[in-house]
Amino acid sequence: MFVVNITNCSRGIRNAWHFYYALVFVFKAVGGGIGIALLTP
């Protein structure tokens, strides 16, 4: 039971990291798009 609990926890952490990286990627993409829009006359 204890081992199963650890794997469940690590899976949740891994999913959280994937979500965080996806969020950062989207933020960079949106921020980059805004930066390009501001730089182009």
TrEMBL record:
It comes from the Bacteria. The chain crosses the membrane at residues 20-39. Keywords: Membrane, Transmembrane, Transmembrane helix. This is DUF3265 domain-containing protein. It comes from Vibrio ouci.
